[in-house]
Amino acid sequence: MIFFILIIIDISCIAQRSKQPISNPDIVLIYMDDMGYGDVDAYGGIDYITPNIDKLAACGMRFTNFYSSQPICTASRAGLLTGCYPNRIGLHGALGPYSKIGISDKEVTIAQMLKKKGYATGMIGKWHLGVTKKFLPLQHGFDEYFGLPYSNDMWPVNYDGKPIKDTNDFRSKYPPLPLMEGNKVFRYIKTLDDQSILTTLYTEHAVNFIKRQKNHPFFLYLAHTMVHVPIAVSDKFKGKSKQGLFGDVMMEVDWSIGQILKAIHDNGLDKNTLIIFTSDNGPWLTFGNHAGSAGGLKEGKMTTFEGGLREPAIVCWPGIIAPGAVCNKLACNIDILPTLAALTGAPLPLHKIDGVNILPLFKGDPNANPRDHLYYYYNKNSLEAVRQGSWKLVLPHKIESNENEPPGKDGWPGKIHMDSTGLALYDLRRDPGERYNVKEQNPDVVEKLQQLVEKAREDLGDDLTGREGENRRPPGKL
User: Fold this and answer.
1) Which ranges are annotated Basic and acidic residues under compositional bias (predicted)?
2) How far apart are CA 280 and CA 125, in angstroms?
3) How far is CA 177 from the centre of its chain?
4) pLDDT averages per 10-residue partition of the chain, 478 residues
5) Contact present, 426 and 390 (Cβ < 8 Å)
6) DSSP code of 169?
7) CA distance 289 to 296
8) Distance between terminal CA atoms of the chain?
9) Which of 99, 118, 151, 437 has the fewest CB atoms found within 10 Å of its own CB?
10) In Å, what is the CA distance from 123 to each residue of 109, 195, 198, 384, 422?
11) Per DSSP, which regions of 402-450 are E strands?
């Protein structure tokens, strides 16, 4: 639930396009948290403005069928950084402060891959691939790290910002929320006011990294904590939008991206910088006005319906990507690693990965279709759907549904209910909201997609049908 860019300020996209980038481009990967398909102007966001994100869309390529590898924090980030379905490498869910597992040292991250090509690597923001030192960024290819090791709601503070006194509430057992620098705690985040400065702190560290690394290739991974609840905004954006606190937070995140673009420009790097912008999963809808929008897609975070996995994705790279381009082809966050390998000449991992090189899509090749199909996984290893072309086959499974439930308000969650779905076929070209099951009219399509399902179960297994699979790897363990 990413994007490469160059550019900016008021310089013409077309003028920039004529300047061909050189080898070993600088790479900035911006990863949002719980931002939905409808949460930026370019994808239909309303009542607040995101002009800097919109510039990326205007001067680059906007994907309309870009997916996260799972609809939840840890799993999505594992897929992004390793190019693998998260269940292949044993990571799932959202790891907590006391988790005993994390990313294995046998996996290869984007940062480790790029370091072999001489890149300086920096990680700022939410990590969420393990808590103890052996799992943290500095041990997995990053030269620098500043941010939170896990989600900002994993702290002993209630939805109203007050300490939790009820010892029966599992959240009361959480330790103080650590903001880390390197492998050590920089300070603790104890209040909503503390959370309100995270976007600014991340931005300052990102700009500083760009300035310090401007003389050689760098990879900057900026994983914003926002707009994951509890959302918080600094005074400079408080009350600025017509959509309340959520809109204010989106405007501040957009400001952050503008500062990064300005730093790229001011340091003379905008002729050869890629920026990737996307999100880890869809909106956490139960939080109502503190959550984002799935843009009319079905459900949201923690489901494998389109609202949980389909994400905004914008890539801008002058000279390679035509300004204002739109790509309707299928792509996924696991495709970022092999794509970066292709454009930098970095070696791919020796073990099996699931991502494909989508560089031909960036270049606008109308005949390119590097990703033939995509599997939708959730939980530890549950295969819940498969997509090929515009067809999506949903397999029988249980879901935590938000539909027909009143959402929460002002930071408090609403209700959800357990539901289930049977076998269903959707034509996403005509029915992106997944409302009309057309399996009876298209038995040949169902049969074809079931063949893909069987291949996946042989390879990775499937908890829903009790299959073990042949090619899964264990996570790192304490």
Assistant:
1) 454-478
2) 13
3) 22
4) 38 36 84 98 94 95 98 98 98 97 98 98 98 98 98 98 96 97 98 98 98 97 98 97 97 98 95 94 98 97 98 91 96 98 97 98 96 98 98 98 95 97 98 98 98 98 97 98
5) no
6) S
7) 16
8) 28
9) 118
10) 12, 19, 14, 32, 41
11) 417-421, 424-427
Whether the Cβ atoms of residue 241 and residue 247 lie closer than 8 Å to each other: yes
User: In whole angstroms, how far apart are CA 6 and each of 67, 135, 172, 258, 346?
Assistant: 23, 31, 44, 12, 21
CB 309 within 8 A of CB 444: no
Question: Which residue among the candidates 13, 84, 92, 128 is catalytic per the annotation?
Answer: 128
| Phi (first) and psi of residue 268, to 5 degrees | 70, 30
Alpha carbon distance 3, 31 (integer Å): 9
Q: If you search the block for the tokens 């500062």, which residue do you land on?
A: 259
Closest C-alpha to 69, from 345, 353, 437: 353
**Residue 456 structure tokens:** 């996946």
Please list the alpha-helical segments (H only) found in 345-474. Answer: 359-362, 443-460
CA distances from residue 57 to 3, 88, 278, 325, 407 in whole angstroms, order as listed: 10, 33, 12, 8, 31
In this prediction, residue 271 carries a pLDDT of 82
Type and span of the H or E element at 14: helix 13-17
Q: Which of these is catalytic: 73, 84, 316, 327?
A: 73
Spell out the domains of the chain, with CATH numbers in brackets. Answer: 13-372 (3.40.720.10), 375-477 (3.30.1120.10)
> Which residue is associated with the tokens 């691939």?
129
For the record, the structure tokens of 38 come out as: 């409808």
Token pair 């650590």 in the structure block, residue:
178
Handedness of CA 86, 256, 358, 217 (dihedral sign): negative
pTM to 2 decimals? Answer: 0.95
Residue 101 bridge partners (DSSP) = 477
Asked if 392 and 386 count as a contact pair (C-beta separation under 8 A), the reply is yes
Query: Can you give the three-state secondary structure of 247-315, one letter per residue?
Result: HHHHHHHHHHHHHHHHHHHHCCCCCCEEEEEEECCCCCHHHHHHCCCCCCCCCCCCCCCHHHHEEEEEE
Amino acid (1-letter code) at residue 427: D
With a CB cutoff of 8 Å and minimum separation 6, the contacts of 162 are none
SS3 184: strand
According to the model, what pLDDT value does residue 319 have?
A: 79
**What whole-number distance in Å separates Cα of residue 53 and Cα of residue 58?**
9
- In this prediction, residue 22 carries a pLDDT of 52
Angle between helices 244-266 and 198-212 (to 10 degrees): 10
4 and 316 in contact (C-beta within 8 Å)? yes
How far is it, in rounded angstroms, from Cα 126 to Cα 120? 19
